[in-house]
Amino acid sequence: MTAIRVLHIPGRTPYARKLRDYGVQILNDTTVDGLVVPRDATLAWLLEHRPWDWLDVVHLHHPDFEPIPRLRAVLAECRRAGKRVVFTAHDVRPVFGDRAAHHGRMRVLAENGVPFVCLTPGAEIEVRRRFRARTVMIPHGYVAVPDIPARSTQRDRGPTRFLIYGSLRRNRDVELVLSCWRFARRLSETTLHLLLRAPSRVSLLEDAEAWGAIREHSADLRLRVDVLPFPSDAEVQEAVAGTDCLLLPYRWASHSGQLEHALDVGVLPVATRTGYLPDQVSLHDGLVAEPVWFDWSGDAPFDHGARLLEAMQTAHAAIQGGWQSHDAEKFAEHRRREHTEVVASYRALYEGGR
Fold this sequence. Notes:
Protein name: Glycosyltransferase family 4 protein
Largest sheet: 6 strands, parallel
Keywords: Transferase
GO molecular function: transferase activity
Radius of gyration: 21 Å
Number of strands: 14
Strand order of the largest sheet: 2-1-5-6-7-8
């Protein structure tokens, strides 16, 4: 059986890297017939490397930075060359850029008959309503491989450990977390770990408030800040396994891979009830407990700090009271079954089915 050759754009994310089996070959970060395929291939790079006899499928994930004319050009070339295109709609509402441009890209994809993979039923309903797209619902699946040894359920006595990891994106309010947490009397016996991607000149400007807050509060010995070139899967896994609570202070979001990561590892998520995050939890059919949710909807912006603190205090009390995660082996078995179905569903799309 000849494997289907798939190029992910971009291909850095764990989500893209896991979509492989005996029948699917991921081209990113490999050499094909002498062509070195970058891990983070872009549409511009793809257009520069025609003809495309070295690939079968272009799988789009986050087209936020791709100009619409370039997107149209790639879709037209794929149509001429007989190459399939698949789009995973991780974000119905964009993390980067403005909503109009993001939705414009999604309309171009829908108009060209590209199948949309939606991660939750609610997102699928919205995508169909907004864009009249052809859709299939495939759950997010694991972030931490289910074969990784389960995190110990025994916890040493000590402060409750909170973690935030990743980039300082505008849709996460790290500044409010730092200001509330540092001076919260009832959180004095807690620590906060920030595991961050190294900034660029551009991100230092765009995320200036967050970096300013980090500098302002860095003297607090309970705050640990790690900046890495790009945190590897192993480094992120070590940080999550070494915490008690994963903080997800989203101003807005559609879905969250970090929420899935917390469930994989068995740490307590503390998250805003936003987008389709509650739907992600419900897809696990009662195998996991609800996160500690808090509400940052627009009706009461002056209460956001209070609601955050209440959620963090609830999580802190739960951890100090002996909180236990779900059954790790049952959940790992669920993840293995789920992954088999996820990859089979994608393979069907790659083959032109569904």
